[in-house]
Amino acid sequence: MIPISDDNPTLRTPVVTYLLLGAILFTWVVIQGAGLDEVKLAESLCSFALVPAKLAGLLPAGSILKLGDGLSCGITDPVLDKLTPLTSMFLHGGWMHLIGNCLFFWVFGNNVEDSMGRFRFLVFYLACGLAAAGAHVLVDPTSTVPTVGASGAISGIMGAYLVLYPRVRVNLLFVIFIFIRIIPVPAWAVLLWWFAVQVISGLPQLMSMQEVEVSGGVAVWAHVGGFVAGVVLIKLFQNPRYTTQRASWRHRLHPDHP
C-alpha cells in the first residue's frame, strides 16, 4: 500500500514543503553524492548522522565506529555531534529510503502546512523531528548504528494529518503481483494502520532491549515518537483561521464528502 495523493486541495502554495523537499534532495545529491560514492556517503554518516551512543557521550574520543563494507570513522567529539538530531533529518541511506520519505511528505505535508502557515509549519516539522530523535535515543541510548532520514519529522506530519483530516480520502496504490489498483481509503484508516505497524514492529525491541534498528533496518520508535508529537502538538500549531477557511472551501467543493 503506497499513498500517492489525497482528495484534499490546498488554498495556499505549500512553499515550506517545497523548500524542505528541495533541501532533502540537495543534501542527498550534493553532500551524500546521490549514493553513488560509498566513501562520500560514509563521510556524510560520520559527520551528520545521529548515533545515540555518541550523542549520549558513551563513545569516548578515539573510538572507531564501523559502518560496514570495510568502512569506519573515528569519534572526535566535535560540536557537530550535538547537532546531529537536526542534521540527520536531511540525510538518507539510499534511493528507496529517499523516495519513500519524499512521497509521504508530498502527500501529507502540503495540507498540514496549509492549516498552520509557513513559519509555524517549519517549526512544527523540526520539533517533530527532534521528538522522534529523542524517542529513538531514549529506547536505546547505547546504539552505535547511525540513524538518518526525514521519516521521524514526516511521522509528525502524519500524526497532525490524522487529527486535522481523519475522514479525507487518501488514494492508495495497491500492487499484488500483476494486480495494480488505486483505492481511496479514509485517512484515519491509513494512518492508524501505519502507526499500529510501527508499534507492533518495535515491541520486540523493548522486550529484549536489542538495538533499535533490528526491525528491518528501520528505527520504528523514532516513527512512533514523531507521530505522537504530531498528534500532541497540532492543536498548538494549527491556525484556526486557516482551518476554518479550508473547511468552508472543502464543503463548497465537495458538499457530499466528509
Automatic annotation (TrEMBL):
Membrane topology of this protein: Multi-pass membrane protein
Location (main, coarse): membrane
Cell compartments where the protein resides: Membrane
Domain Peptidase S54 rhomboid: 86-235
Keyword Nucleotide-binding: no
GO molecular function annotations of the record: peptidase activity
Keywords: Hydrolase, Membrane, Protease, Transmembrane, Transmembrane helix
Gene Ontology BP terms: proteolysis
Record carries keyword Protease: yes
Source species, domain of life: Bacteria
Transmembrane annotation, as ranges: 15-36, 88-109, 121-139, 145-165, 172-196, 216-237
Pfam families: Rhomboid (PF01694)
InterPro entries: Peptidase_S54_rhomboid_dom, Rhomboid-like_sf, Rhomboid_protease_S54
Protein name, per record: Rhomboid family intramembrane serine protease
Record organism: Pyxidicoccus parkwayensis
Organism phylogeny: Bacteria, Pseudomonadati, Myxococcota, Myxococcia, Myxococcales
